[in-house]
Amino acid sequence: MLEVINFSKKYKNNKNYSARHISFTVSAGEVAGLVGSNGAGKSTIIKSIIGVLPFTEGAIRIRGNDITDKPEKAKKLIGYVPDDHSVYEKLTGREYINYMGSLYGASLEQKIFVTDILAKRFEIDHALDSQIAGYSHGMRQKICILGSLVHDPKLWILDEPMVGLDHQTMRLLCNYIRNYANAKHAVLFSTHNLEVVRKTCDKVIFIKQGRLANIVDLREDKYFDIDGYYMQLNSTKPKVDNRKPSAYPGFSGAPMSTPSQAPMPAPMPMPAGMPMPYFPAAYPTFGYPAFPCPPDMRGPQLLGPANTPNPPEVDPDV
Fold it and tell me: Is the model's pLDDT at 60 over the cut of 80?
């Protein structure tokens, strides 16, 4: 159904590629999740698939129709839910659905199915005759979903569809995505919700910094650790300080990677004749002399006998 072949995209006045050498397929009956951190290139890939962005290299085909050579035929097969919920705010929900259906040549039966049945299923039927400008964030997302399905697209693409939806609607959308694919349609959606990916997707496409990191078929590997792999894929190793000892004035020794390896400065010498306070083992001094207390503040429970000239040695490792 969908073929992305050696896809690369570089924006003008940008030396680096936003996406480079990406290839994957989504067949009829499959749900594919596009997963990656912010800025990984997911939206760039999706907007190029639907024909909004021109791309630099490669090819994109929908049911054999090249998005560049045959854009009209390819786009008629696509239903798209944007991440910014772009809608005509001056229209009512019903007018928007009918307008989208007319653009794609949807039949009257398909329009009625969306406005009468799907609208009730997504609990937005009560607001269909109200202006979209008064819709909440979640309601706008719902009307975008309905508008993308009015022509019964063969390829349904959703960019971050779970954003702004309550838990009940999210579960409803996940079930509908699964059922829609079971009716021999192809579904591709991007998300950060790994739980949704685990329960809904047949295939997971991992993107990292504009590159294809991995494609995992969850039907073959049902116990694949999506969370663990995603965390490992986007983890950054802690930096190790390998500067030479000369970079640390006053210190000598091997380069330090943690503060605990820094050499300790020598203890400060005590003035002659000043008594050393006594600390029991519960209060180790770790080789540093403690500040002496005045004689009237010496309590036997903490400092021991006031006339003890030389306190016993304390092992700092005890």
Answer: yes
